[in-house]
């Protein structure tokens, strides 16, 4: 059995774990995986920050409630040397137990968010403060705003039992089905979903894809498709993903560039959920999520945008976007390519600033890219 498959077997039964330090078979896998990572040409943040002294300090530790080990945190990065980050939190306590590796990675992803920094309290403000980015619909094809939440007293994906998945799905969908007006809709469980329907929902950018190897290696796809599903309103402008990467992803999307309206719709949905459900939060890190890249206010606001002149050269576009704290992805999300010159451009910063500030930064950055595109096109 290879090391990775063995890791999956070893990390299977969280409910049966009751140890105060990582057992020998986990230590062996960790040592072997660490050695291979150290010898690799991996560019991951895991490799960059997991020094031998931090590794030795953390390798025997386990989290107090779920007995998650360092292997549970880093096995995706050990398997996939091409990971950008390479670490996930198997449960909310992992951020504290394994702070020596999470903190430098968090500070690297969320530039400048050091140990002494504290994520601010939520401040949503008003969507109406952000005028339509592209009223004539020349550039922005569609706008999407999403955030993530974890339900308090539940661990994250790798530690969830099949029953936990069912219970979470039941709790969350029950609340969603009470939503009214623009937010009212249907819950579609993934289990039993017609394959054609599923494909169409994915192709239309509503539903999550399956088979992400980074999540699979992190043990985040166990019991798939049990407990996974999507809630959608009638207009297909408001969605909630259940038990994909996080327990909850609240999503608002629409055609065109009305970022303020999409944001406002997402916040109303989020606040309605928060009325009935308690979320996992940390005083310093903000909302707790499976991947450290999503901590803080958890918002990724994105536009699908056509920038035929400044988008000709992707490296240059990335450089310009970076100056405005924006990230460039392909049309079908992370690890995809741009189709027909349509890029997915989103905010990079979500930690150490409020929701309102994140949307403000995104609004300013996209406006600047549109201005640059106009300038470039008028030169021709
Ligand atoms: N502005 C947008 N308009 C339409 N679809 C979008 C837009 N932004 C993202 N999408 C679609 O949403 C889906 C999910 O994208 P993706 O997985 O990249 O991001 P995410 O849901 O924010 O999660 P993560 O950042 O964890 O990957 C994809 O189908 C993607 O094309």
TrEMBL record:
Alphabetized Pfam families for the sequence: ATP-gua_Ptrans (PF00217), ATP-gua_PtransN (PF02807)
Taxonomic lineage from the root: Eukaryota, Metazoa, Ecdysozoa, Arthropoda, Hexapoda
Presence of keyword Cell inner membrane: no
Annotated organism of origin: Drosophila hydei (Fruit fly)
GO cellular component terms, A-Z: extracellular space
Gene3D superfamilies: ATP:guanido phosphotransferase, N-terminal domain, Glutamine synthetase/guanido kinase, catalytic domain
Protein name: arginine kinase
Similarity-based family: Belongs to the ATP:guanido phosphotransferase family.
GO molecular-function terms, A-Z: arginine kinase activity; ATP binding; creatine kinase activity
Top EC class, one word: transferase
Gene: LOC111592977
